[in-house]
Amino acid sequence: MFRPLSHPDFGTDPLFLPSVTPPPIPTPVVRQSLFQRLRTRTSMLARGGVNANNELQVGLLPQPGWSRRNYHFMRRVLLPSLWQRRSGESQQPDLTHPDCPGKFQVTWIGHASFLIQTGGTNILVDPNWAHWLTVVKRLRHPGMSLNHLPRIDVVLITHAHHDHLHMRTLRRISTGQPIVVPHGVGKLVSRAGFGQVIEMERWQELEIAGLRITFTPSKHWGARHIHDVHRGFGGFLIKNSHGRTVYHCGDSAYFEGFAEIGAHSPIDLALLPIGAYEAMSGREVHMNPEEALAAFRDLGATHMAPMHYGTFPLGGEPVHEPLVRFKEGALSLGYDKQISILTEGAPCVF
């Protein structure tokens, strides 16, 4: 026999029972089947590696003259570098956090690798201590030994290319801390020893280790091999609790989006690439020094430090050329007071 529920205010009259809101129906997680994923990737490869949903993704198809450029690179850059002695030396810097509240202490490891410290938090961006990238030799020693690193609180990876995501380095520095990567890159680092793998989309923001991290767009591509063109790529705005911001560009060709990034947050220090601009494929995937200075202007940043030059010979230009052109360009534009040429292993406060 049916018995209505009682209520202290309305007795047992079923007409006055309080309304009960049913629990929300969970939204089903839609997962692509293996066939759908293969079809998506095949479609992207058929378009030359271009993602129809990302106008900033550079395609994979080489431009005319790629065989000549490859011969030039092999003969004039790669082969001579194999016999070149590594320069520089690993330092043992004082990595005590700066006394000035809100400041960033930035130490260049080499290439695109940085140790960024602020407010007691230690961040590594694109850590790479490799002496070789397959047949490409590292020409300058890392700025410090891995053993000299402080406790690392969070690791940021801009994209999956081997010179930015170096698995052997990641396995050595992982101690259960979180790692932040672009979308589609998480699986690559899921077994590297990190406690949490966080994937980010463009313009997504994240609060972590007392910092606000924003994943910014870039004009590049994210495939680690050839078939995996679905992987994301970009840069990071790193804002501390005092509102100061460091911007790590990752890899990028010049594009109009730098102004939008600068409008999103005032930037105290921009870390911008200046090398590997004579790509063997002929594609526009990296900035030359003059374009990096134009990006600095568009960002409206207070200071700039160049990166992605002198460590690994990845472009057809002479290894010494990017920094020479950069210094000349900065001087001609009157930016010399805003530019900091970092030395590997030497901390600088911004």
Low-confidence stretches: 1-24, 26-30
Count of discrete structural domains: 1
Instruction: Find the count of extended strands (DSSP E, 2+ residues).
Output: 15
DSSP helical segment count:
7
User: How would you write the strand order of the largest sheet?
Assistant: 8-7-6-3-2-1-15
Q: Which class in CATH terms?
A: Alpha Beta
Q: What general form does the structure show? A: globular
CATH topology: Metallo-beta-lactamase, Chain A
Pattern of helices and strands: HHEEEEEEHEHEEEEEHEHEHE
Helicity, as a percent range? 10-25%
* Span between termini: 77 Å
Mean pLDDT: 88
Strand coverage percent: 15-25%
Radius of gyration: 24 Å
The major β-sheet equals:
7 strands, mixed
Return the structural class.
alpha/beta
Textual characterization of the structure:
- It is a single chain.
- This protein is of the alpha/beta class.
- It has a single domain, classed as Ribonuclease Z/Hydroxyacylglutathione hydrolase-like (Metallo-beta-lactamase, Chain A), CATH 3.60.15.
- The chain contains seven helices and 15 strands.
- A seven-stranded mixed sheet has the order 8-7-6-3-2-1-15, with no helix packed on it.
- Helix 5 runs parallel beside helix 6 and helix 6 crosses helix 7.
- The relative contact order is 0.15.
